[in-house]
Structures are given as C-alpha cells and as structure tokens.
From TrEMBL, chains A, C:
Belongs to the acyl-CoA dehydrogenase family. The keyword Cell inner membrane does not apply. It holds the Pfam family Acyl-CoA_dh_N. Its cofactor is FAD. Residues 171-295 form the Acyl-CoA dehydrogenase/oxidase C-terminal domain. It comes from Actinophytocola gossypii. Keywords: FAD, Flavoprotein, Oxidoreductase. InterPro entries: AcylCo_DH-like_C, AcylCo_DH/oxidase_C, AcylCoA_DH/ox_N, AcylCoA_DH/ox_N_sf, AcylCoA_DH/oxidase_NM_dom_sf. This is Acyl-CoA/acyl-ACP dehydrogenase. It comes from the Bacteria. Residues 10-72 form the Acyl-CoA dehydrogenase/oxidase N-terminal domain.
TrEMBL record, chains B, D:
Signal peptide: none annotated. Residues 6-120 form the Acyl-CoA dehydrogenase/oxidase N-terminal domain. Pfam families: Acyl-CoA_dh_1, Acyl-CoA_dh_M, Acyl-CoA_dh_N. InterPro entries: Acyl-CoA_Oxase/DH_mid-dom, Acyl-CoA_Oxase/DH_mid-dom_sf, AcylCo_DH-like_C, AcylCo_DH/oxidase_C, AcylCoA_DH/ox_N, AcylCoA_DH/ox_N_sf, AcylCoA_DH/oxidase_NM_dom_sf, Mycobact_Acyl-CoA_DH. It comes from Actinophytocola gossypii. This is Acyl-CoA dehydrogenase family protein. Gene3D superfamilies: Acyl-CoA dehydrogenase/oxidase, N-terminal domain, Butyryl-CoA Dehydrogenase, subunit A, domain 2, Butyryl-CoA Dehydrogenase, subunit A, domain 3. Residues 124-204 form the Acyl-CoA oxidase/dehydrogenase middle domain. Coiled coil: none annotated. Keywords: FAD, Flavoprotein, Oxidoreductase.
Length: 312, 389, 312, 389
C-alpha cells in the first residue's frame, strides 16, 4: 500500500509543468518531444511502457493548464491503432493529431477535428472505438466551442472508411483508461482552481486585509483544498487499481471519474466567485478551467454510466 | 391578505395587457453594440409615449405616480407578453432615476428624469475600482474642487454598459484627509466630457458587458453633485437599496418564464433511450425544486411590494437580489446541463444557443451589484443586527 | 395584491404566541379555548369562518413551538365530519382529539392515537379521508416516535367501523388545506430556527467576540433568514391562492409545501450546528424543531406528490 | 505507487483475517452503560492477548511497532469481519495513548500504555468548557500548585464517555496572569480522585454520550503533568492531530460498509408502486455520489498513511476528519430518508432502529473533535497559509 508518487512520477510532472505553465503555444511540440503520446503505450508497440498511474500524473498537469491540443484523443487513437495491429498507423500518428466524437454515423459534432489526421469515434453504447481518416471535406460547419481551447465541427461521417477498430475487452480497456485520464485532468483542474483561489485570497486586500482572512473566502478555499486532495488521491487510487487488475477497479474508476467531475465543476465555479469581477473576465484563466471541466465532464464515462458502475 | 386585484388593479392590468399585446416589438433585439442600444431606446420611447414608463415614479417627473404594486403588475404583464427588458436602460431606470428622485436637485431632476423615461439617456454606474470592489469605501478616484468644478482623476472598473452610456453616476474621494467613507462625494458625469476614456472589458462569455473608465482631469460642474460635498457615501448607500430590491422585481418575474422554458426543454429533449428527459425522476425532482423556489421568490416579491405599500419599507428588499441571483444561476445551469453534450458548443443547436450563453453570463449574477458575500453581510448586519467582524 | 398580514391576523398570532411560547402544558386547552380547531370551519358548521390564510398564520405559530397536541389532525377531522354532514360528530370533537395515519386498512402506524377519540385515515392514492372510532384495544404496540412531542402506535384497523368519509373534490379540498397548513407549520419552524440562531450568535462569545461576528456563522444566519422570509411569503401566497380559487393554486400549494420543507430541514440542521454542542443536547429546543420538521415533511403532500404538481 | 500488498503486508493481512475470522465476538454489543464498556474492554483484551493491539504503537510500549499502513490494513480487515469498534476505548487508544507516547514521561508510559492496550483503562478528554468550546484558549478551569500537587477547580463539558471513564486528559489554566493559551498545563487525572463529579448530559438522540465534569479542589500529583507547567497548549495542539487524522482511519473504513448497507436498503425497500427504491434514478444518483465520495475518502486515507510512512507527516490528516464527518452525516441521513414514513419511529421496523438513531447521532460529527468551522480554520491557516481574520 503506497500511494506516494514515485521519483520518476515527480520528475515527469516537473517536466510537463515546465511546458504547460509556460504558455500554450509550444505544448503540442513538447508533448511529442516529451513522449506524452507514447508514455502509456507498451514498449513492444513503440511506447515507453509507463503505467496508467504515470499517465494520470501527467494528465493532471495537462488538465491544470487547460492547454490546447488533443492529447487524450491522439494517445487513445495511437493505442487503438496499436491494438488493431496497425503499426503503420501508430507511426503516422506520432506526428499527427486525432479529433474525436462520441458517435459513429451520420452528421455528428466532433472536437479538434479541423486539423486532425484521423478521427477517433467512440461508441459507448456498444463499446467500440474506431479510427477514420479525417479530411476538411468532411467538415459540414465550424461551430463555436464552449471551451475556447478546443475546436468544434459538425462532421459528415457518411464516407465510411475505417482505418482501425477495437471492440470487446480491448475497447473496454481503452474506455477505462480514457475515463481515468479524464478524471486525472479533472483532478488537475480541481487543484489548479484551488491554487488560483488561495494565491488570490492571500494577496487581494479589501476592508484593510487580505480577503483570505474572511471566512466566506477562507472556508471556501478549505473546501476547495479538500476536494483537490481527494481528487488527486482517488485518481491515483483508480489508476493503480487498473494497473494492478484489482477486482474493484471498475468501481474505483467510476468513483474517481465522478468525484473529480463534481470537484472540478465546484472548484472552478468557486474560484470565479472568489476572484469576483476579475474571475468573470475573459482575460483571467478561471473560465478556461471551468469550460475545460465542463468539456471533460461530458467526455468518457459520463454521469449515467458512472451511476450504473457505482450502484452495481 | 389578497392576491385578487382590486377593480383599479384589474383595470390597470387589463389596459397594460391590451397595450402590450399590440405594441411589443416583434423583431428580435440586436445582440450587441449601438443597434442593441437603439432597440432598447426605441422600446422605452414607445412605452413613454403611451404613458407606461416610470409606473412608480412621481407624476411631476413624468411617471405614472402609482405604487410598487402597479409596477409589479406591469412587470407581470410584460413577462406575459414577452416584452423586451430595459436592457441598456437598466441603470438609468432602475438606479439613476430613483437616485435623482430621492436625492437630486430640482435642476438635476428636470434635466434627466423625463429624458430617462423617454429612453434618451443611457446611464452607467461608477462605483467599483480596481482596489475597491466589495470594499467601496476604499475607493481612490479623486475629485478636487476648482472654482465651480470638480476635477476628477482616477479610474472606475466593472462599469456595466459604460461603453454604450451617455451619463455615469460617480463616487469620488473629495476629502483625502477624511477616513474611508467620510470624504466621498456623489456626482453625475456626462461621458462625453473631455478626459473620459472608456475601455471595454471582455467577459467570460466572450462578450462586452462592462468597461473600465479612466478620468484624466475630467471637469464636472459642481451643480452635478448629488447631495453635498462629502455626502457621497450616504447617497450611495441609500440608493443601493433600489438596486437590491425594486430593480430586481422585473427580473424575478422573467425568471419564472425561464423556469417554464427549462421545464419545456426537459419535455422535448430525449435521453439515450429516446425517453423525454422529464420522465427521469432525478430531472423531475430538480425541476420541481426550481419551480418551488421560483414561486417562493415570486411570493417574496409580492410580500415585499405589499409591505412597502403598507409601511413604507421592507427588509425583504435586501433578500430578493441574492435569492434571485442564486436561483437564476441554478436555472440557467440546469438548462445548460440538460443539453448534455449538445451544451459543448454555443451554436450547435438552437437550444444550445439559448441556454449555454445564459449559463455563462449567470456567473456574473452573484458578483455584480454586490457579491453574494457582501449581500449576506448586509443581511446579517442591517436586517438581523448581528455584530460586525 | 396585498400579502401584508391584516390586523386580525396579527392579533391572532399574538394570542397564539402567548400560549405556545409559554410552555406546552396548557396548549391543548388554550387551543380549544381560542377556537383553533374551529377557526377555518364555516360559520354554518359552527366554525369561525376564518380564511385559510388566517389558519396558516396560526399554524405557523404552532409549528414554531413544536408543541404537543394533534391540532391539524383534529381540525381536519372536524371538517371531515362537517363535510360528511355528521354535525353530531363535529360537536363531539369540540372536546376531543384525533390521531391520524396515512393508511386505511390493516396494521398501520398511527400518530397521537393513544388518547384520541377518533382516527383520521388519509388515503392519498385514492384521495379520501375517513374517520374511524379509536379505542385502546386497537393499539397493537406503542412505538418510540422520532418527534418526542407526538406519540406513535401500531394500530389494528380491522374493526371496520367508519364514522364519516369524504372523497372526490371535497377530500381533495381537505388535502390541499392540510398541505398548506403543513407548509405553514414548516414555515413557522424555519423562522423559529432562524430566531434561535440569530439570538445565540449575538450572545455567545468565542475568540473574544460574539460568534455572529464570524462569517461562518453570520452568513449561515443570513441564509436562514432568507429561507424564513421566503417560507412565510410562499405560504401566505399559497393560502390566499386557495382562498381565492386562483387557477395556479395547486401548483402554488405544492411550491409552498416543498419550499418550506426544504427550508425547515435546512434551517433546523443549521441551527444545531450554529449552537455547537449545546444544540446537540436533548435539553435545547433545536432537535425538537428538527424532528417536528422531519415529521411534518413526511405528512400531507409528500415529496413525490409535490414533484408531480410542480412539473405538471 | 502500489496498492497490491508487499509479501509482508500480505502476510500481515492474512494473519489478521485468519485471527479475526475466529475471534470477532458473535454476541451483540450491549447498547449502553457498564455492560457496553465491559464488552469493549473484553474485546480489546482479546486483541491484546493475541498481539493485535496497538498495531502502530512502539514495541517497547506493548504495541506491534508497525507503520500506519499496517494499522490501515488492520482496520480494513476489522471492517471486513465486522469487528466491534473501540467504543469506550476510543479516546484511550486514539488519543491518550499517542499523547503519552509523544509527550509523556517514562513513568506515565509505564503506568498507562500497556494498560490502555489491555483495555484496562477507559479514558476521556477534558478540553471544552461552557465558555470555551471552539475557543479552547479561553478555558478557565484553574490548577494551583500546592506542594507536589496541582489543585484543580472548575468544570469541563461535552466530555465524551466521562461517565464510563477511569482517566481523563485535562487542560487547565495554571498561570492566570499569562494571556490565553500561555499559562495552560496538560495533566492526566484519575477520575476516582475526591472532588471529581461527573454529571451525564442527554443528547438529542435521547442517549448519554457525554457529560459535564466538575472539579472541586481536586488534587492531582505533579508527576501527572504531561509536558511541563505552562506547556499545555503545545501538548494539546500537537496531539489534536492524532484525533483529526489517524483516529478517523478506522471509522473511514467502516463508513464504506455503511454505504453498502444503504445501497442494500435501497435495493430491498420498495416505493408506492412496489418497485425497489434503487430503480429510481434520483435515488441511484444519490447513492452513486455517496459511493464515489466514500471511495475518494478511502483513497485519501491511503494517500495519507502512504505519505506519513514516506515523509513522516501529511497535511491530508487535517482533511480526513471533516470529510469523514460530513460524508458520514450524508450517508446516515440518506439511510433515514430512504425509510420515508417508516423513519418517523425509531423502533417501528428493524431498519428504522438501525438508521434513524444513526442519523440523529450523526449531528454530533460536525461538532465534536472541533466543529466543521474550526476544522476549516485549521486547513485555511495551517495547510493553505491563509491569514487569520
């Protein structure tokens, strides 16, 4: 029993943070440079063979910065390609990007599809993941995304070509992994919102003292901190449980996914309120965290599926 | 107690309904900028010409001279016929007008009140500053008397609608030696005065609702002071009540309609099994909570106008704004959440275009016009008499 | 449009308060003395012909004190008797008490049945109200009530004798009236819990000042006060709407019932917390208010029925 | 990171499971009074004799000398086999023992630690006073040195289990001239000492959990001081951490079982249409929230013991208690609410007898061992470094 992060994990986080906190421009280059997409891929598929727990720590940093770049979709696409035996596709994707959509036919809303090479189509109902080639001709309309760091497109999927597909247990495993990494990103947001709030509450003065001296603010910060610590812990707990094939892994993943979703939404709302009018501006990062949290909350393993897993 | 209208109330409501049914603009309100402001002014002018502007304002200032009860009835009828909101005229009608009625000079009233009711003057507030948000008494913008003018230097921020406004209410420090809220004065300023610069600020919903206003040697005639030099805090505090109570009445009534719309949304949208969302007892319970709170808020507003009419005041005024702000947030969030993944764009569906921006905008409800925390301080201290910290 | 209480209503409240706040012992005598049971009964049935709004103001006082004595059950029983044309029974009940149960057959849990003359049986499913004679022989077991100011009994209803029954619109009207008066009692509790909290917060000192100077306490008190004001207003609103046969009356009653239930439970929980360990003792009134609120919440027009009315 | 046990952890867990499967008492725990205390003592003695008492206590004091990780594993196995909780020995094992290990003299350790592990000594705390609840530094109970004794006069209140206890930890003011928390001393007192009077207090659930203790010239040998004269605040603060972190670990694990029981309750009880309550998606969503929070709290406890083992301390310790307290309240309230009208008696059904008293008792969770508000102050100031008000 040891949920304390390893030295390697802490180094990984430090390296990732150096990139994500520096600004969004070069993140994608750094992501490929630092091997983010290959971190959890088995070594025999050309990956670094990291654990899901390692990946979770990395994705927490990605979440915390709400940076642009479809890291989860692309790394999942790489895995789908590998799992389907399409190692040529794995190699091609080392330089590429994947958009994603939670539908497999017709006219659907996809995210980050405009500049993508492939589209990851997720069918949660039947439990399958499919890769299709993505071209600009498939874009029916560019939409305005809630999260300003993604793009949203209405895409026509009638083309029908499929590059790779996984179903059954293999797809199930990818969906579980993706849910853990969504939880990790949400945990990162939960912590980032806490940090923003605490820093601001310690500096901003009103009525002759820092606002963090008022319980309306300090107790809210304490609540945020508790959610943040628990969010990190439950994500680690779920990730390690998956790595170790623990019999409770599915339930723990659902728990992590739900706790972090609630925590991230609560904390991002709270940090806007703690920052007052400043937190309501476009210029401040608070809304980016809120919107990213909302975007992720609707992603892999949404609420109804969580409920099912948690009450089974 | 009585909800049934008196014959006079009935007649007022019928006339209002009759007029609204024929005069509510059919064309959509432009989404931003000067066309939006022109729309709001035109609708106000239409009301003014027909005698519906300023229902509860005194007759001598161009109002109808009725009570808040009739004002409430007017809001109810407006909601019923989906009349446009005051929009950019919100501060003029809801705050600046009442301030001048309560504390202005005769000249100020003559210069502005009828113009406000006609929709000819768009007003903004000018209270908050970068270092004085919740703590207004810490404001630093200075006014120095120079002959028959006040010369103002400094900046105001989070000024809703400043970029579209003609006039501004301005709270400035005129006696730097006096402590905190002593030494403040309340002036009104023509925003075309040289030295005023308005810089719009983009909000988290990507739109410009407010601005920062800079004052560089702005000369305001002393006759534009409201109250005397050094009376600014008193004027500001007296009049914040308008904003927190009566100004919210119209929005309370409109919120009831929005709750209906969210209920309708739940009836028309389906879940993954093709069942309407409203068949989920989780969704139904949530909507029932919103509906119950909406009715309770409506009832509180009615109790408030009743008490004001009977006794001249009501401490419920300080409660309506925070209750409205928080319920409105919940309603708008529920709307956005019912959209599920369709809520991840602001234009992927008509419903998203309606509910997602409203949700984002609602984060301002518990910050503007005093944060939720400040509103609770006010209730704790002024209504409940609890000691200050 | 006038929700400001009338002079008569304020006198009624002052008189009732003099009894309820003085202590529980003589409340039932006073209740009959002040005509509480007959207040809302039409004059031609021997009542005082008060409005439901008048009754609501009275019941708020009853709720606020959480006194013993089955006022609502007995006044409802009187009305059922009157509505069924049993004026003899109306007269008999002027000196008697009614217990009540939310079931009409078999072995059921009844409240305040031990010393009752009749039992009011409420069938919410079919919408009927029935009076049956109550004898000690029917008591199968005395139970321990959650609310220490009521008694609870397991009662055998196989006797079958029915003294009076109302169904259809008449029963519907009685159920709506009872729901409004439950809301009124809950509103009274909501206000009483607020008053207790504010008074204690102003007096109790810790860290060198009254605890009401701390936002953790003062903001909670502000929340309680908002709920309390709204609870009173929405109850009046619903009661007057019923009195005036307003087309929205049903929905407003459900709103009042739900708002006051939530408000009373929140405020009674909050007042225990505000009082700290003192509020956790048997000796302090806080738990009586909580338990009465819980008891009433399960009464006429419970949550599922509210949801139905509010989302119709 | 690793959850899978090491071979040593696996062996420890297996041995624990094997022993518990054969030794957990089958008879129900008496509900109150001396029989209840006797039951708890006997169960503790059984553990002690088999070497399971004080898993994380040093060997020289009779413990097993293992880490909090093994302590956690032990709690997990105890929950698995439904072993009785420490009950009246809670303070002795969770607080008094650790205090003496950390701050006691050799004599004190010899006199008490093994006795505590054997279940021979029931302990109570003695911190709060009528005028010093959250504000412990305001306490007034006085201790005056008289020869080699401290003579204590005053009163302590909300002392859990005082009416069943042998010993008490006592924080008293020994230097009335010193300000607030300076001038306090920490002593341990034999509750049979002349001048001690214990008056039980009935709680809102109708039961006696705590008492008020009065001291009238109670003579405590100076050798019973923990730390020196005037060190009381330091000792108390150092040791409150035990209560807030490690003492809660066992209850966290038990809460997971209770959540399972509430889920089972929802599966077995039916609504008015005869459907299991668990088929309502409102109920299901609520239970899923509880389960998710329960797992998160479990994870936090594991992260806490891991960090303590690796680094010697963890600020998560201050979070476990408030998170536990509030989740536990929600779980118990959910249990009571699922009962519907059956929840209006405490003995009408077996389920009511189980869940309603638990719900009532749970109101104490956010009051005892520091109110929810004080716990947040601690996190805000000591963990987050926010300024004091």
């Amino acid at each position: 029993m040891d949920l304390y992060p390893t030295d390697e994990q802490r180094e990984l986080v430090t390296a990732a943070r150096a990139v994500t906190r520096a600004g969004a421009a070069d993140v994608w280059t750094a992501a490929t440079g630092q091997g983010w997409l290959a971190l959890g891929l088995p070594e025999d598929a050309g990956g670094l063979g990291g654990s899901l727990a390692d990946e979770a720590r990395l994705y927490a940093e990605i979440g915390a910065s709400a940076v642009a770049g479809p890291v989860l979709a692309t790394s999942t696409a790489v895995r789908v390609a590998a799992s389907a035996g399409r190692l040529d596709l794995v190699e091609r994707l080392a330089e590429g990007r994947a958009g994603h959509a939670f539908a497999t036919t017709g006219s659907v809303v996809a995210f980050d599809a405009r500049d993508a090479d492939v589209l990851l189509l997720v069918d949660e109902e039947s439990g399958s993941l499919r890769l299709v080639p993505m071209t600009d001709a498939m874009v029916v309309a560019d939409l305005t995304p809630l999260d300003p760091a993604v793009t949203a497109e209405r895409v026509d999927l009638s083309g029908g070509e499929v590059l790779a597909e996984v179903t059954g247990a293999a797809a199930e495993h990818e969906l579980v992994r993706a849910a853990v990494l969504v939880a990790a990103m949400l945990a990162g947001i939960t912590n980032a919102a806490t940090d923003l709030s605490v820093a601001y509450a310690g500096l901003r003065e009103q009525f002759g003292k820092p606002i963090g001296a008022f319980q309306a603010i300090s107790h809210r910060c304490a609540d945020m901190a508790m959610r943040a610590r628990a969010a990190t812990a439950v994500t680690d707990f779920a990730a390690v449980s998956v790595d170790e094939h623990h019999p409770d892994a599915r339930r723990r993943v659902a728990a992590a996914r739900r706790h972090t979703e609630t925590a991230a939404l609560e904390n991002t709302r709270a940090t806007i309120q703690v920052h007052g009018a400043t937190g309501f501006t476009w210029e401040h990062d608070a809304h980016r965290l809120l919107k990213r949290a909302t975007f992720l909350a609707a992603g892999f393993l949404p609420r109804t599926a969580q409920t099912e897993a948690l009450t089974a | 107690m009585r909800l049934r209208p008196t014959p006079e109330e009935r007649q007022f409501a019928d006339l209002a309904a009759e007029w609204l049914s024929r005069n509510v603009p059919r064309e959509p309100r432009p989404p931003a900028g000067e066309p939006m402001a022109a729309f709001d002014r035109a609708w106000q002018r239409l009301q003014y010409d027909a005698g519906w502007a300023g229902v509860a304002w005194p007759k001598e200032y161009g109002g109808a001279g009725l009570s808040l009860v009739e004002q409430m009835i007017w809001f109810e009828q407006c909601a019923r016929f989906d009349a446009p909101e005051p929009g950019v005229l919100n501060i003029a009608l809801g705050h600046a007008g009442p301030v001048l009625i309560a504390e202005g000079t005769d000249t100020q009233r003559q210069d502005h009140l009828a113009a406000i009711l006609r929709g000819d003057q768009v007003w903004a507030q000018g209270f908050s500053e970068p270092e004085a948000g919740s703590d207004l008494a810490a404001l630093r913008t200075r006014g120095v008397v120079d002959g028959d003018h006040l010369v103002v230097d400094g900046t105001k921020i989070w000024t809703t609608g400043a970029h579209l406004s003609d006039w501004q209410e301005l709270l400035v420090r005129t006696d730097p030696a006096a402590a905190r809220h002593r030494g403040l004065s309340f002036a009104i300023v023509d925003l075309t005065t040289p030295g005023v610069e308005v810089r719009p600020i983009t909000a988290m919903d990507g739109k410009v609702h407010f601005a920062q206003v800079f004052y560089d040697g702005v000369r305001i005639p002393l006759r534009n002071l409201v109250g005397g030099l050094g009376d600014g805090w008193k004027v500001a505090m007296t009049t914040l009540g308008f904003e927190r109570g009566t100004m919210t009445l119209g929005t309370v009534i409109r919120l009831l309609k929005l709750i209906d719309d969210v209920k309708e949304l739940a009836r028309t949208r389906v879940d993954c099994r093709g069942q309407p969302l409203s068949t989920s007892d989780e969704v139904a319970a949530r909507l029932a909570d919103l509906e119950a709170e909406g009715v309770a808020l409506h009832a509180l507003a009615v109790a408030f106008v009743s008490e004001v009419k009977r006794t001249g005041s009501s401490s419920a005024g300080s409660m309506i704004r925070p209750l409205y702000a928080e319920l409105s947030q919940r309603v708008k969030r529920t709307g956005a959440e019912l959209l599920g993944r369709d809520g991840l764009t602001t234009d992927g569906t008509d419903e998203a275009a309606r509910f997602v921006p409203a949700y984002l905008h609602s984060f301002g409800h518990t910050i503007g016009t005093g944060t939720a925390e400040v509103q609770r301080n006010v209730i704790a201290h002024r209504v409940l008499g609890l000691p200050r910290g």
